[in-house]
């Protein structure tokens, strides 16, 4: 699978230096873009890859070779976003504390001194740009994307939802990566030694892009609970890991989704580090019988909210509103 990321470097005239990993048909994956502004305020730059196939000039991007699957409009949108304001500050009281005596691993990894809040720079206010060409058609179908000649074992489900920011605006083209244990509660990972067997037809990972309304869905097997060495033998409730990029690195989110009605949720030491019950409820997917697939899949809805910007960009009012 191709992966996407971004790398920024700060220089006197350099707005951003971006690395994007693509999945073009000729197999060349690594590209680097330098976006600069001259003394007159004009934006320019070039993509350093395979003979400079892509160029940026006067704030617009052009593709010189259509073999490279790149959506010019998305990069043009990123250039405009340079003028957007900062993202809202995080409410730390909503997050779990770094140290909780009932969550054993926080004892050694939690900081001993207060965290320092740093100002937001271009690094945080911009981020990687994704298009559908980065994905394989089966990336959002965890039931089918690892089959070795048979169907995976377990309860078939669909997870869907919408990604919004704090101002209730859809976050479009957000890359969502998911990974999980199989129906028996075991991950396909060399360090997982749980007694439950691996499923030869289930890999447990996938990804999907949100659409223009911030909506997403993927099909999978409902994961099982499993024990872990915390204080004795604690049990993790069934869950799916989520990683979201959003439209900028300041919106980066890694979280977990749980299932409505699971009796292990109130017993989990990790979940119990969350100070507010409302925060726990935001991590629980609700059964959505209105969307179930008859004689096939139950459906769960899981909406996510990312940080919002302090202003909205308007093409006729670049300073925002």
Rg, nearest Å: 22 Å
- CATH-wise, what's the superfamily of the largest domain? Aromatic compound dioxygenase
Strand pairing plus helix content: what structural class?
mainly beta
Number of domains: 2
The count of helical stretches stands at: 4
Strand content: 25-35%
CATH architecture of the largest domain: Sandwich
CATH class of the largest domain: Mainly Beta
The CA-CA distance between the termini, in Å, is 39 Å
Q: Approximately how much helix is present in the residues?
A: under 10%
User: What's the mean pLDDT score?
Assistant: 77
Shape: globular
Order of helices and strands: EEEEEHHHEEEEEEEEHEEE
Q: Major sheet, described briefly?
A: 9 strands, mixed
Q: The CATH topology of the largest domain is what? A: Protocatechuate 3,4-Dioxygenase, subunit A
Residue windows where pLDDT falls under 50 for at least 5 positions: 1-39, 41-76, 78-83, 312-321
Number of strands: 16
């Amino acid at each position: 699978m191709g992966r996407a990321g971004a790398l920024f470097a700060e220089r006197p005239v350099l707005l951003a230096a971006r690395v994007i990993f693509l999945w073009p048909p000729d197999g060349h994956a690594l590209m680097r873009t330098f976006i600069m502004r001259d003394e007159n305020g004009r934006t320019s730059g070039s993509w350093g890859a395979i003979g400079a196939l892509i160029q940026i000039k006067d704030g617009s991007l052009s593709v010189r070779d259509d073999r490279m699957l790149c959506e010019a409009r998305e990069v043009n949108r990123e250039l405009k976003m340079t003028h957007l304001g900062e993202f809202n500050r995080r409410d730390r009281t909503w997050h779990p504390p770094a140290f909780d005596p009932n969550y054993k691993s926080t004892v050694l990894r939690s900081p001993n001194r207060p965290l320092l809040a740093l100002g937001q720079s271009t690094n945080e206010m911009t981020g990687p740009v994704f298009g559908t060409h980065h994905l394989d058609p089966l990336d959002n179908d965890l039931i089918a994307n690892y089959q070795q000649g048979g169907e995976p074992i377990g309860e078939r489900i669909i997870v869907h939802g919408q990604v919004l920011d704090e101002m209730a605006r859809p976050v479009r083209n957000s890359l969502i990566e998911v990974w999980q244990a199989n129906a028996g509660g075991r991950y396909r990972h060399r360090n997982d030694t749980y007694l439950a067997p691996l499923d030869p037809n289930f890999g447990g990972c996938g990804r999907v892009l949100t659409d223009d309304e911030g909506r997403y869905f993927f099909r999978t097997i409902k994961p099982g609970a499993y024990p872990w060495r915390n204080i004795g033998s604690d049990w993790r409730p069934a869950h799916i890991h989520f990683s979201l990029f959003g439209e900028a690195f300041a919106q980066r989110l890694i979280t977990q989704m749980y299932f409505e009605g699971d009796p292990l949720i109130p017993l989990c030491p990790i979940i119990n580090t969350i100070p507010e019950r409302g925060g726990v409820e935001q991590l629980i997917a609700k059964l959505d019988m209105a969307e179930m697939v008859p004689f096939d899949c139950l459906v769960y809805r899981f909406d996510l909210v990312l940080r919002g910007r302090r202003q909205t960009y308007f093409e006729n009012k670049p300073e925002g509103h």
